[in-house]
Amino acid sequence: MTDPRLADLLASVPDLRLKTDAGDLEHYGRDWTRRWNPAPLAIALPGTVEEVQGIVRWANRHKVAIVPSGGRTGLSGGAVAANGELVLSLERMNKVLDFNRVDRTLTVQAGMPLEAVHNAATEHGLVYPVDFAARGSCSIGGNIATNAGGIRVIRYGNTREWIAGLTVVTGSGEVLQLNRALVKNSSGYDFRQLMIGSEGTLGIVVEAILRLTDPPPPTNVMLLALPSFEVLMEVFNEFRGRLRLEAFEFFTDRALRHVLAHGAQKPLEDEYPFYVVTEFASNDEATEAAAMAAFEHCMEQGWVADGVISQSEAQAQQIWRLREGITEAVARYKPYKNDVSVRISAMPAFLQETQALLGEAYPHFEVVWFGHIGDGNLHINVLKPDDSSDADFVTQCEHVTRLLAQALVKHGGSISAEHGIGLVKKPYLASTRSEAEIALMRGVKQVFDPNGILNPGKLFDA
Fold it and tell me: Which part of the chain is the FAD-binding PCMH-type domain (predicted)?
């Protein structure tokens, strides 16, 4: 270790674990985007809030940028360290600190994986309901940093709804205790909500008080095959009108083919262009009858061509794998990802316009669509051809993203539904936020991070 700044860091925070090996720098310096070459100064792994404070104070003295790091499962470049930043990994801060049965809260350190949070809640007969496919590797701090949504937003909302309190270290090294699990608190600005979705640019979340709830009633899962794109919202409205939906997820035949090639079981004998996985509360015969009535009505209207309802937990998991396995199945193609949202009522017009736009713009590329239709969130994955260079591929995709951003302005949507802005979507932030809003966001960052050391260059440029 030859850098005198790192020697000073270890002198300032004596028990700090620090990694500088080339393999560690590469591993911790990137996220799932894989578009930037990682080049961090070092990897700091604090074990306490006080150590995080010490790192931040050191960074201010030496004018070293910090990239907060959780599970690094993000898809917008928010956890990338490509310019000599210090990566501050919270993976050692991964414990349950407290469970309060009366308040029904679970206090955890920010580096705790989401799946571990689920397991801890289950031990007390309750659930933390935010969920998505990366549950085993993403961290609760990263979920908070992007206000992650996932597959059950239609029923439970985003991460934001389940955060009762936060402990945050600001860019100047101050520790803030935000909201303290109060149900009602009208004493000024709610900085807790400001930190949620801020992508580590305002403060480093070190602890979180999570709201828990009762386990959901028994559910059932149904796979629906749709003959066309246009009927998607009709099917959604029919099922939502008859059932208490837990999830309503959409994907295309191309997505299905990749998941089947990755080891999933073929669900239906014939092939169809579009599919829906829906999960709904099903705790009595009346609910089962309502589900079948919705299915039969959609069949009669020509909105659904085929389908299957799970008869066991194992079959339900097989059906869910068809949706949750998409990201892993297409990862080897280095997909260019768009993660957009519009109001549910605007979804039909936006889908029609976007489908035409992408069909014209990407005639030679394979485009894999899937999304959380029940909450207006669409994921668009453009797969890189083997004969295309990374740079040429990204250039072509960014041209279309500009067109997509224009369509989002027209429909009042967002360029980032749940993955954050990071580096990838920074050029398109103005399609979602006005100049006045962005100016205020810069002002807020200046207050919480006066020297601009926290995740600089992410979300917007200084």
Answer: 36-215
